[in-house]
Write a structure and sequence with these properties.
With 351 residues, the chain is mainly alpha-helical. It has twelve helices and six strands. It folds into two domains: 199 residues, Cytochrome Bc1 Complex, Chain D, domain 2 (Orthogonal Bundle); 118 residues, Cytochrome Bc1 Complex, Chain D, domain 2.
């Protein structure tokens, strides 16, 4: 089997993860980590230089710009110093750093928790509220349409290339269809895939979300994590996890503190952070930590204070019970004598 098509085999064959588990949405439900597809080539999105010079291309380019420099929405929709691309690496292209091409194909997706279907644009809204500690743009806003258009273009361009249609422009789609995502009957895939990719396989493109990481042999420890942090992370992210800002431009993102993601974000969970870190950090030297070190450093980073969960109600204990009862995070738990969440920074500084 030619390597580039190998992932298609997986996609067509479905996977062991049932689609009902693969749920996310406005409340940052957890996306199960995927077994890494060993020795398979991953999907390659179309090269950005091929974004066309026309009105649709402008929308796609706008989406790209917002994705890599989300700080241009600072104070309007963004309340911290992060950019989407800080977590969705390589401008949302990198497999197992929750790439946008795989995400676009997975929505609309069903959410078990409230029996609600969420669209692609709604899922982006979730990252604005929590990961960006901000205020989500309206569903019909040019910003969300542009980011959806960009994600769609990466996916569709890559599929066309894969099937020898390098010269074919990515077909334009209406704003409505872009907001919705590719997991609907009306979203037609090109070439030989047109009637083959079953709807229930569209959430399982290899490379989606984060790669599964083996469980730690010892319970993750913030104490051991502090050591890993100072050896492998502090040089870039700073002794206090504050990141680096140069000439007013954040160049290295904050891992905790006022300028990082808030207590409601997916990355605040130790398991999610550990899978991300193992696969992607230290930047440029990824997959160097031992799994136990990734778990420990994730526990350290996620047991420091950060902006409050914007769903906060009454007090930390009530909020923890309502929103964090079964997540793998430290909200409401005690570390070094402090109950995390009780000294949180302001949630959502943009109003
Ligand atoms: C060489 C510098 C460098 C080192 C060392 C490094 N990182 Fe990063 N890290 C970055 C940069 C830069 C980004 C943003 C990547 C981008 O925008 O493409 C990032 C992104 C992140 C993110 C996601 C964004 C955020 O703010 O939450 C996490 C989490 C993270 N790093 C954790 C770690 C951990 C834990 C370590 C140590 C094991 C580490 N990093 C080591 C440079 C580094
Ligand atoms: C601090 C890291 C971080 C930042 C910054 C961030 N995200 Fe996310 N995003 C995540 C995590 C973690 C998930 C997986 C959700 C989970 O399992 O809880 C996710 C999931 C998503 C998904 C769904 C992926 C899928 O396969 O279902 C989309 C779409 C998305 N983010 C878009 C964005 C956009 C657009 C921005 C910028 C406005 C952004 N994100 C900023 C961490 C981040």
């Amino acid at each position: 089997m030619p390597i580039k098509k190998a992932w298609l085999f997986l996609l067509l064959a479905g996977s062991s993860i049932s689609s009902a588990d693969g749920i996310i949405a406005d409340m940052q439900d957890e996306i199960p980590a995927q077994q890494k597809a060993a020795n398979l080539g991953y999907f390659e999105p179309r090269d950005l230089s091929k974004i066309p010079e026309d009105a649709f291309g402008d929308k796609v380019r706008k989406g790209y710009e917002l994705f890599v420099n989300t700080q241009q929405l600072s104070g309007k929709y963004v309340g911290n110093q992060l950019n989407c691309t800080n977590c969705h690496l390589d401008a949302g292209n990198k497999a197992y750093a929750s790439p946008m091409w795989a995400a676009f194909l997975a929505y609309p997706e069903f959410r078990k928790k409230n029996n609600k279907i969420s669209s692609f644009a709604e899922r982006i809204q979730g990252c604005f509220s929590f990961s960006m500690n901000g205020k989500a743009p309206e569903i019909d806003s040019p910003e969300l349409v542009a980011m959806s258009a960009y994600s769609y273009w990466l996916l569709m361009g890559g599929l066309l290339d894969m099937f020898g249609m390098q010269d074919k422009a990515v077909p334009e789609m209406s704003d409505k269809a872009l907001q919705q995502g590719g997991n609907v009957d009306s979203f037609k895939l090109p070439g030989p895939l047109s009637d083959k990719v079953k709807l229930d396989a569209r959430g399982h493109m290899p490379g989606r979300a984060f790669a599964a990481l083996e469980k730690p042999s010892q319970a993750p420890s913030p104490e051991r994590g502090a050591k890993v942090y100072s050896e492998h992370c502090a040089l870039c992210h700073g002794a206090k996890g504050q990141g680096t800002v140069m000439a007013d431009v954040p160049v290295i993102p904050a891992l905790w503190g006022a300028q990082s993601f808030n207590w409601g974000a997916g990355m605040h969970r130790v398991n999610t952070a550990a899978t991300f870190i193992f696969e992607n950090m230290p930047l440029g030297k990824a997959v160097q930590l031992k799994p136990q070190q990734a778990w420990d450093v994730a526990a350290y980073m996620n047991s420091r204070e950060r902006p409050q969960d914007p769903r906060f109600k009454d007090d930390v204990a009530t909020t923890a019970k309502q929103f964090h009862a079964d997540d793998d995070g430290y909200y409401g738990k005690e570390v070094d004598g402090n109950t995390l969440g009780s000294a949180a920074f302001p949630a959502t500084t943009v109003k």
